[in-house]
Design brief:
heterodimer; A: mainly beta; seven-stranded mixed beta sheet; 51% strand; globular; B: 109 residues; six-stranded mixed beta sheet; five-stranded antiparallel beta sheet; 11 strands; 0% helix
């Protein structure tokens, strides 16, 4: 299994500011994913972070709001820009393990973001 | 789009059995996953079904019926540590995972 370190684990931010979340994996992975989990709701895929090219964003998410960097095969960052209270959520990075059945996802411990 | 439904909450007694149902409507199907998520922690993988039938793994079993768009996760011999949220996730035709909102299971002594 992959070991994923994500930081910060939590933060409280002011409206209009930006926060960058870091995700470090202990092995090289082709794709890293960023999810959002709003209170009482399901995990929603924000984007797929591709190494060497722009991230691929899902419907409803744009690069200006959630810029992503992927400088190498073990590291990625997600920035939540110009935050509003509606961005209060848990943000999770994940990687896919192709070994065994099912290509299961492994998740980082998440970043609990509260925007005042 | 994808539509995945599962109950919001379930409560059961220690030592008992609980069955969490999941129904889905997706564009294509390439497998169904169950994840466990304790409060404040990341989801962890529990099971994977891609063919119809029952997959058993210790106290946990997962069932799939593709024709009915239906799965369940069966938790046997419940322990207090099983209190968590259980997420049903379906991989669609585009190989992306879509998650249900999760079922919070509370185990009482």
């Amino acid at each position: 299994s992959a070991v994923i370190s994500q930081k910060p684990s939590r933060d409280i931010c002011q409206r209009g500011t930006s926060l960058t979340i870091q995700c470090q994996v202990d092995s090289q992975v082709t794709m890293m994913f960023w999810y959002r989990q709003q209170p009482g709701q399901s995990l929603t895929l924000i984007a797929t972070a591709n190494q060497g090219s722009e991230a691929t964003y899902e419907s409803g998410f744009v690069i200006d709001k959630f810029p992503i960097s992927r400088p190498n095969l073990t590291f990625s960052t997600l920035t939540v820009s110009n935050m509003s209270p509606e961005d209060s959520s848990i943000y999770l990075c994940s990687v896919r393990n192709r070994r065994g059945r099912g290509e299961k996802l492994f998740f980082g411990s998440g970043t609990q973001l509260s925007v005042l | 789009g994808q539509n995945i439904d599962q109950p919001t909450e379930m409560t059961a007694t220690e030592g008992a059995i609980v069955q969490i149902n999941c129904t889905y409507q997706t564009s294509g199907f390439n497998g169904l996953f169950w994840y466990q998520q304790h409060a404040g922690e990341a989801p962890t993988f529990l099971s994977y079904n891609v063919l119809d039938g029952l997959e058993e793994k210790g106290r946990f079993s997962s069932f799939l019926s593709r024709s009915k768009g239906y799965s369940y996760l069966l938790l046997k011999e419940l322990q207090m540590k099983d209190s968590a949220s259980y997420l049903c996730a379906v991989r669609g035709g585009d190989y992306k995972l879509s998650f249900g909102a999760g079922t919070t299971v509370t185990v009482r002594a």
